[in-house]
What does this fold into?
Amino acid sequence: MGGCRRRAGRPGLPLQGTMPCMGAAEPNLSRATARVAIQTDDFDLGAEVSALRAGDPGVGAVASFVGTVRDRNGGAAGEVSALELEHYPGMTERSIEAMIDEAQRRFDIRAARVVHRVGQLAPGDQIVLVVVASAHRGAAFQACEFLMDYLKTQAPFWKKESTAEGARWVDARVADDAALARWGIAAGNAACAAPGDAAGAAGAAAR
Amino acid sequence: MKLRVRYFASLREALGPGEEVELAEGATLGALRDALVGRGGRHAEMLARGRAVRGAVDQVMADDGQPLRDGAEVAFFPPVTGG
It folds into this structure.
């Protein structure tokens, strides 16, 4: 599920001088909230959107994406009873910070935040949130999709599903590599077998 | 040089969370993987060439040609599946 809200700026409000921590010209650099959160707790989309655009009257568009746990993965409804998310502490935060830096280079955005849950999740639970604020909608939409495409193939998270047949690691999808390729970036994730090893590459793609 | 190797997801289940590895100066990420495969057993199986394994050096995704420095943190893991 994704949502998008647009709000006109409020000219005339003297917000510029009212931010106690705003020393820099770039609104992003001095935000009180971190750009990346890796947490076991759930998140609140409304609260995240409010926090992201708070104190920046230049924001005119906010785009968001929420990923949720499905109860199936190519099989019958209800086949997945639980999902466990493992990650690489340190590298996870670092890689997502780098993605947001790249999004800021590519798109005219004013702020972005990514929240990703780890640990034990159940079908219907929220997993990931991307929120982007910009002056106009185009940059927010694009940066939101770019960040999700990047995260899917470059952030070190791994999903393990519980089913009636036991637990299984979720396979990476070639389609996710293709999604990042649209932005001119080679993902090298789902098809990351050694170059020149055709059998291995085919095996990776088929799994 | 001494390297700190870490494993995640299916590789962690098979090989444990990590280990210290001694390797000749100037070795690359690919050389480290080959050295681990050379041990045989579970290492050879899980890190085999042709198997989908990604690597990171000091918490940044890296290719086989990436040179390693003494004390580096190197990680091997399957393709990522977050989001």
Remarks:
- Residues 8 and 77 of chain B are 5 Å apart (CA to CA).
- The radius of gyration of chain B is 12 Å.
